[in-house]
Amino acid sequence: MIRMMIMVVQKTITIREDQEEYIVKNHLNLSRFVQNKLDILAQQNGNIQTPQKHGGDDQ
Question: Which structural domain, as residue segments, surrounds residue 28?
Fold first, then answer.
């Protein structure tokens, strides 16, 4: 079994109030949401190969 070491970097983003309300109302994990969207964009552009996900929801 090959294990992949994943480095974690924290970033700060600014969102509008209506976006915050949507996140709270829909119980989104904003970090996971952004990571998944970035993975999709990167794969579409052929820029990176993303690590396999293990369990959890995609929100």
Answer: 16-41
Inside any domain, residue 52: no
Token pair 């990167």: residue: 42
Q: How far is CA 10 from the centre of its chain?
A: 12
What single letter denotes the amino acid at residue 58? D
> Percentage of the chain with pLDDT > 90?
51
**Site of tokens 């480095």:** 7
**Beta carbons within 10 angstroms of residue 48's beta carbon:** 11
For residue 59, the model assigns a pLDDT of 52
- Using alpha carbons only, give the angle 17, 22, 58 rounded to the nearest 5 degrees: 130
Q: What share of the chain is helix, strand, coil (3-state, %, to 5)?
A: 40, 0, 60
